[in-house]
Amino acid sequence: MAKFVSLAIITTLILMHVTEAANPPSFKNIYAFGDSFTDTGNTRSNPGDPATWFIFVSNPPYGRTFFHHPTNRYSDGRLVIDFVAESLSLQFLPPYLNQSADRPNGVNFAVSGSTAIDHNFFVVNRGTFMDVIPQSLGTELEWFEKVLKEKGCVDSASTPRECEGVFNDSFIWVGEMGANDYAYSVGSDVPPQTVQQLAINSINDFLQALLKKGAKYVVVQGLPPTGCLSFSMLLGGPLGKDATGCSGAANILSSTHNQMLKSKLDSFRKNFPQSIIVYADYYEAYMSVLKNAKSYGFTDVFNVCCGFGGMNYNIDYTHLCGSPLSTSCPDPSKYINWDGVHLTEAMYKVVADLFINGNYTQPPFGSLLDKKRQSGLLEEQHNT
User: Which residue in 26, 102, 342, 382 is the catalytic one?
Assistant: First the structure.
């Protein structure tokens, strides 16, 4: 008899797990922020501006793998945010600047090339790579505030009911930010440590603004190991490599950035206990893939799939991905790096899975989903 009872309990638990997996929490919207790792189309090709790098995103072979045409995503296909949307049974997010697009379940405010620090800082403190993208996290917040205003939400203090109506069913995704700040400051007179503190302060202010408005379910990505991006390795030269073969200095900068960011998130959890704030550890997830590349199907971890020449990681400054003479590899799924700064769909898919189903979020991504499910059940009970 005990065996039958145990079997019944196990069967029930399995069915509960399957049911939860098949029925993800009923988020109605995703609002996403960030840079080119998250941008689903707010940036287009700008070949007329010689100061801009990676300017051919509207050209093939961008988008070749999944969409089979360019979508102004800096990859051959989907990004992490796309896989997150799929996991929540929601449609891909339209870019905010496409005002004619339907917005059935949210908006993407991320802009390729955008910074955490205000754009004017880089105009005054110009480095080797000129910041020609005027948008920053502040801009993305302004855009979001316009969307919220349309729904009657200002902040949780002055319009509590309206903001609660928005955020109770909204998932907030804050993609990695800060990499462009460090890139634009190379060659300037501003020390990297100063840029880092300013970037962290800007991200802190942005997150605080979201939480004060009532954001309830929030995921914040850290930086990936930027020293493992092919373009960074090319600029760094053969010296200064770390144990993984990446640019050591760039990786240290990313790592310290992430430590500072996590400290800020710890404070937010104490000050906003009603919010679930998850840190997505892009750095460690990426490193895990790099160290076990073959098990994920990757045979080339540093060379770019889309480039020119075959030398220098297959990067040529005058023939970047999407330009007339550039070419792409036969199978992007074997590569981690797509164009030198951005990743392949295959890599984004692996990273997304490590976030959603793996151990690279703190607290676990599943805990956020569980909280949402519990909230939904309580709301149903209240309504009945």
Answer: 342
- Are 90 and 352 in contact by the 8 Å Cβ rule? The answer is no
Identify the DSSP state of 292. Answer: T
Give the confidence band of 46 by pLDDT, cuts at 50, 70, 90.
low
Reduced DSSP (H G I as helix, E B as strand, rest coil) percent helix, strand, coil of the chain, to 5: 45, 10, 45
Catalytic residue among 75, 328, 339, 375: 339
257 is catalytic: no
- Band (pLDDT 50/70/90 cuts) for residue 376 is low
Could you tell me if 30 and 85 are in contact, meaning their C-beta atoms sit under 8 angstroms apart? yes
Range with the lowest mean pLDDT among 26-30, 125-129, 264-268, 372-376? 125-129
Q: Give residue 112's pLDDT band: very low, low, confident or very high (50, 70, 90).
A: very high
Continuous segment of H or E residues that includes residue 31: strand 29-33
- DSSP states of 127-189: -SS------BHHHHHHHHHHHHHHTT-S-TTTSHHHHHHHHTTEEEEE---SHHHHHHHTTSS
Q: In the annotation, is 36 catalytic? A: yes
Helix, strand or coil, per DSSP, at residue 269:
helix
Are the C-beta atoms of 40 and 108 separated by less than 8 Å? Answer: yes
pLDDT at 303 over 50: yes
Angle at 188 between CA 184 and CA 189, to 5 degrees: 145
Q: Is 70 exceeded by the pLDDT of residue 23?
A: no
Given the residues 36, 185, 188, 328, select the one marked as catalytic: 36
**pLDDT, position 58:** 94
Instruction: Check if 342 is active-site.
Output: yes
Is 60 exceeded by the pLDDT of residue 32?
A: yes
